[in-house]
């Protein structure tokens, strides 16, 4: 999942994001962050990570989200 896809479906992704980053306050992140960097900075502060670590974990989470979205398509083509 790209940042663009995430922003287009923010409300749906928010619950899954909170599952991955449990210290993220739902009220704080309910409003779409202005950029991935802003979100990574917030996640770093809330989860005792460096900004680099938070960005890497966010990137990993986006990859997993993308793979999960593609799974039904892959199963259908088998």
Task: Summarize the topology.
Elements: H1 3-8, H2 10-20, H3 26-29, H4 36-46, H5 51-76
Helix pairs in contact: 4-5
Q: How would you describe what is shown here?
A:
The protein contains five helices and no strands. The two termini are 22 Å apart. The model has no long low-confidence stretch (mean pLDDT 87). It is mainly alpha-helical. Helix 4 crosses helix 5. The longest helix has 26 residues, at 51-76. Helices cover 74% and strands 0% of the residues.
Helical content class: over 70%
Query: Over all CA atoms, what is the radius of gyration?
Result: 13 Å
**What structural class do the secondary elements suggest?**
mainly alpha
Which parts are unreliable, with pLDDT below 50 for 5 consecutive residues or more?
none
- Total DSSP helices: 5
Cα-to-Cα separation, first versus last residue = 22 Å
Assembly state here? single chain
Into which percentage range does the β-strand content fall? under 5%
Any idea what the shape is? globular
List key phrases describing it.
mainly alpha, 5 helices, single chain, globular
């Amino acid at each position: 999942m790209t940042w663009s896809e995430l922003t287009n479906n923010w409300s749906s992704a928010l619950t899954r994001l909170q599952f991955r980053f449990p210290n993220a306050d739902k009220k704080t992140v309910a409003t779409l962050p202005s950029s991935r960097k802003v979100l990574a900075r917030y996640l770093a502060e809330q989860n005792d990570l460096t900004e680099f670590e938070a960005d890497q974990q966010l990137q990993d989470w986006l990859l997993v989200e993308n793979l999960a979205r593609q799974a039904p398509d892959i199963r259908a083509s088998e």
